[in-house]
């Protein structure tokens, strides 16, 4: 029996999930899907009815990220280095395009450039506090 297992970054926010997903769609393209707490009939706090209970951006090229808004009744603290999202491309041009779009409002942690293990590598913290690591898959050169 063969199973197909995939992993997807699931990002947690408090009120910013829709804006973050819309931003990531503008960077990577793809299809945005959002279900609010109101849509799901699971509103515990009126002010959070339009917050994202489940959302994702799914690209035709395989890019996939999920996100939701942690409700106020649940403990949440924006993590410090609790996770990174890795984006790997086959060429430096591909990765550089994503980098340029993600950089809007971001803080660069490691500037994008050649590294000993990859033709291009960089790390930044975007305007939503998410740390992205971008690089070129080893063995592929632009």
Give a description of the structure:
The chain is of the alpha/beta class and 142 residues long. It has helices spanning 17-28, 92-102, and strands spanning 9-13, 31-36, 52-58, 64-69, 84-89, 107-115, 118-125, 131-136. 16% of the residues lie in helices and 37% in strands. The protein has a four-stranded mixed beta sheet with strand order 1-4-3-2, covered by helices on one side. The mean pLDDT is 91.
The assigned structural class equals: alpha/beta
| Helix/strand order | EHEEEEHEEE
The Rg value, from CA coordinates, equals 17 Å
Number of helices: 2
The helicity comes to 10-25%
- Low-pLDDT stretches are none
This entry's quaternary arrangement is single chain
Percent of residues in beta strands: 35-45%
Q: What's the total number of strands?
A: 8
N-C termini distance: 38 Å
Largest sheet: 4 strands, mixed
Strand order of the largest sheet: 1-4-3-2
Tell me, what's the shape?
A: globular
Mean pLDDT: 91
Topology:
Elements: E1 9-13, H1 17-28, E2 31-36, E3 52-58, E4 64-69, E5 84-89, H2 92-102, E6 107-115, E7 118-125, E8 131-136
Parallel strand pairs: 1-4, 5-8
Antiparallel strand pairs: 2-3, 3-4, 6-7, 7-8
List keywords for this structure.
single chain, 142 residues, alpha/beta, four-stranded mixed beta sheet, 2 helices, 37% strand, globular
At a glance:
This protein is of the alpha/beta class. The protein has helices at 17-28, 92-102; strands at residues 9-13, 31-36, 52-58, 64-69, 84-89, 107-115, 118-125, 131-136.
């Amino acid at each position: 029996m063969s199973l197909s297992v995939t992993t997807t970054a699931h990002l947690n926010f408090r009120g910013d999930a829709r804006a973050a997903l819309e931003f990531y769609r503008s960077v990577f393209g793809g299809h945005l899907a959002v279900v609010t707490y109101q849509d799901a009939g699971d509103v515990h706090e009126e002010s959070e009815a339009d917050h994202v209970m489940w959302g994702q951006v799914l690209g035709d090229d395989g890019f996939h990220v999920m996100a939701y808004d942690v409700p106020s009744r649940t403990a949440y603290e924006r993590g410090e280095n609790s996770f990174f999202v890795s984006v790997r491309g086959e060429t430096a041009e591909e990765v550089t395009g994503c980098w340029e779009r993600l950089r809007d409002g971001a803080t660069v942690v490691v500037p994008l450039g050649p590294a000993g293990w990859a033709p291009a590598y960089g790390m930044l913290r975007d305007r939503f506090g998410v740390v992205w690591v971008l690089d070129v898959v080893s063995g592929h050169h632009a």
